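ok so I'm stuck.
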Amino acid sequence: MADKLTPEELILKLLKEKTSLQLNVRKNMTDAFALMKETLSDIAKSLSQKAGSVDKRINVSYKDKGEFEANLTIAEDVLVFYMQSNVYLFDQSHQVWMNSYVKNNEGNAYCGMISIYNFLSDSFTYNRANDAGYLIARIFVNHEMHYFLEGKRQLGFLYNDFANSILDKKAITEIINSAIIYTLAFNLYVPPFDNVKEVSVSAMEEETNRMQFQTGKRLGFRFSADNDNVK
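replied:
not stuck anymore, here's the structure
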């Protein structure tokens, strides 16, 4: 057939249609994460100044952890923002394929991902490596800088207009504020008695104030099992 591509032509076609697209997604994701870091720093400065009037003991601070991570400490919590280095395509069973924005152009479904985790600040302060953190949201951004979220409660249903939402500074500020509000309302639960009924002498002696009990806001919590999980 005259229109049959040679292997080399097919490779070049895929490089043009797929790899270039993924590189554009990666650039947008990197740009968005840089803007997110800038916004986190601004929010931390503003809240830190104002939190003192509430209680001078409240710690609000921002830390840039390198190319892929940024941390926001809010009182007893740390929000960890982590950028994945890869570009992803959603599984065909994912609800994103029901969106006409994706149906009309499969390329729109290639996304970079930024995850938001919630940890206890004491887990870092006392180097409790066994403590659990919880995924509260995932931000997906594509080659057109369109975005949507998968997440807990307001983080899951307020930011899902993939076809029209652009991940700019305003949107990033709203997402971060929503993550903070959700986190502050997310309570620390006592771990099940049977999970902490035994401790070794060495652990007691070595840790003292850094007990090797696994601690988390909801020990045994699974993101997919929560009642308010995204459908």
